[in-house]
Design goal:
Length: 422
Amino acid sequence: MAARSSLLVSFFCVAAVAASLTLAAALPERMETQPLVENSKFQFEATINANAVNIRSGTSENYYPVAKLDRGVRVTVVGIRQDWLKIVPPEGTYSVISKAFVTREGNTSAGIVAGENVRVRAASTLSPLKVTVQCMLKKGTPVTILGEEEEYYQIKPPADAYLYVHQKYVDPVKQLNAKPGTVDTVVSEGPATQAAVVIVPNVPANDEAAARRAADKAEADFDRAEALLKDSLDKPLDQQPIERLVTGYEAVLKSDHLSVPMRRIAEIRLIGLRGKAKAQQELLAMRKQQEKTNQKLDALRAERAAIEDRMASGLTVYTALGTLQASTLQIGSGTLYRLTDPGTGRALCYVRSDDPKYPTFIDKFVGVRGELLNDPQVNLQVVVPTEITTVDPAKVNKSLTAQVSPPSLIAKPAEHADTGKN
């Protein structure tokens, strides 16, 4: 009977584990291992700047949230990857480890890892998920047990366990500086107390002075960039030295001695300036196009004035004059006709129209009004006509004129004046 009970208990335990794994696999935010994000030498204390900010088990929104923090809560930032900050687990968070690999000392909170490379996972107060591996512990490593959760012990996050928060929800407060040759420990107080350990190398005094000078230079470069930015804000967009500002902030960010708050400001400035650079380019391109348009308008106004002057002097103005002929070349929409010089038979331009009356003008000398276009397909200009009429070729250069006129009908000055006398 006891064996049967034990078998049933084992069955239900296995079923519960299988159900838990099935639930984890079904949820979209499953990530099994945290990305490798090394600790940075620029570590700083910061505050959360919004309410209900998700603290996640990894460096993207695909990782499940483990807790929510409200505005004003302090966190210790020890690394960065793209837009995500690596932080010491804050108060109220914990990790879990399999009970099967921990030896607990009676009913105390002390435990010893009983296996090699045992996985420690990120636990969540918001979700049943606990699949993201934060770190691995060696056999014999002590752990602090906070509670129990199914087949896991809840433990204080080990030294190598970290969580992540998006940088837009964090404001730097101060850089964490340690004295050379010492171990700098930053502690987050609470049930899940965790220390971030930073070992600072012991450097010679002359190196310290060089580092101080480099830090002073980085700060001075940052101040110059800020001053230039401030002076440019009152100028119109097209007059702002945006390219120079971008170059200045990029140079500032190359320094390893720039403080974290200044670095954060410079990064934000660059994002804004690159957006303004694009807007500035679009504005300049628009103005250049506007200048070209104005030049075309001025040319059209001048042409119109010339036409009006001709009309006022009794001239009739057409777009093109010539003898209309059928064309064997048919490219594009609309029927093509050739407008030729009656004296030479050479094509002056083409006329494109589907109007059924145009065939009735074939072999006639006509005047055509319309839009004159350059068409690379036919290697000649093409008139898209609005009007066509027969005209007297003898009146060309007298009472008729056009943009395109037959060269054979254009009057030429006499090369010699013949007086009839020898």
